[in-house]
Amino acid sequence: MAGERPATATEAPKPPPPRRPLPSPLAVIVVTLGLFLVVLTLLAIQVRNGRDPVLGPGPVVPAVVKPGEKGAQAAATSIVTRTSPAPPP
Predict the structure, then answer these.
(1) CA–CA distance, 66 with 69 (Å, rounded to integer)
(2) Residues 6+ away with beta carbon under 8 Å from 87
(3) What secondary structure, in 3-state letters, does the chain show?
(4) Phi and psi for 6 in degrees, rounded to 5?
(5) pTM for this one?
(6) pLDDT tens digits for range 22-65
(7) Contact assessment for residue 57 and residue 50, using Cβ atoms and an 8 Å cutoff
(8) What is the pLDDT of residue 81?
(9) Contact call for residues 7 and 13 (beta carbons, < 8 A)
(10) Rg (CA), the chain
């Protein structure tokens, strides 16, 4: 090709770069397990704080209304649950 010189007998070819040794299996297992536990801890903290987007916000704690204060009537409501009768055979 243009611009290339043919190799002469005095020029030695470049040796290949040295290969890095592979990490030991124990090191891979320890690093992987450590990374997994870090991510699991961060997710557990997020769920505990109620900031998990899948579960939604944490449970809402109703405010305690003392008798005689404004809003005491709203706290005295009741919930009625009705069931349908059994279907005919």
Answers:
(1) 6
(2) none
(3) CCCCCCCCCCCCCCCCCCCCCCCCHHHHHHHHHHHHHHHHHHHHHHHHCCCCCCCCCCCCCCCCCCCCCCCHHHHCCCCCCCCCCCCCC
(4) -70, 145
(5) 0.44
(6) 999 999 999 999 999 999 999 999 888 878 777 766 567 777 76
(7) yes
(8) 77
(9) yes
(10) 36
- Amino acid, res. 65: V
The angle subtended at Cα 24 by Cα 23 and Cα 29, nearest 5°, is 100
Neighbour count for residue 75 (Cβ, 10 Å): 13
Tokens 């505990």 correspond to 48
Token pair 């990490």 in the structure block, residue = 23
Residue type, 51: R
